[in-house]
Amino acid sequence: MAYVVGRMHSVPASSRPDLVGEPTLAALDRLGLTDVVGVVEVDPELSDTALTQEAYDLPIESLANCVIVAGKREGQERVAACMVLASTRADVNTVVRKRLDVRKATFLPREEAVERTGMEYGGINPVGLPADWRVLVDAAVATQPVLVIGSGVRRSKLLLPGEVLATLPSAEIVEGLGR
C-alpha cells in the first residue's frame, strides 16, 4: 500500500525490498504484510527523528521511535522493544520495569542493540526482532492512522497504520508507556 505523510510518498515494501532491512523484510513476508506496509527512501544523514521530521515536513504525531530495553530477574535476561510516539519518551523506570518484572530496566547500548536486532542504528523497529523479545506498543501509537518508523536500515522509513504494530505476534498494548 502507498501512504503519503508530509513530503513522504511511500510504495509497497514488496516493490522495493532493497530498501528494507533483512530481518524486517523476512518478518513482513512471513506475516503477509509486504503489500500493507509502505517504504520510502530517505537521506541516511536525515534518518534521526528530528531531522526526518523537519526535512520531510512530518507532523510529530506521525513519527514513532523504537527503543530496546533489558533487565534481569533471577539471572535471566528480559528484553523488550518499546514503541512510543516521537513526542514522548518510554517510561523505562516505572512502566517498562514493571512489565518486564525486573528490579532495573536499562536501554541496551547502541552497539549491542544493533548487533542483536540485525538492524542499523536509526532503523531499529519492532518488525523482525528475536521471537522471545516482547514488543510494548504505547496505546497512542496503536491508534495513529499512519506512522513513520525505522525500516531496519538508515536509508529508508516504513509507513504503516499503528494498528499493524498492535497485531505483531509479540505485541502488547500499554497505556502510558510513552510520557
From TrEMBL:
GO terms for molecular function: aminoacyl-tRNA deacylase activity. CDD domains: PA2301. Residues 44-166 form the YbaK/aminoacyl-tRNA synthetase-associated domain. SUPFAM superfamilies: YbaK/ProRS associated domain. Pfam families: tRNA_edit (PF04073). InterPro entries: YbaK/aa-tRNA-synt-asso_dom_sf (IPR036754), YbaK/aa-tRNA-synth-assoc-dom (IPR007214). This is YbaK/aminoacyl-tRNA synthetase-associated domain-containing protein.
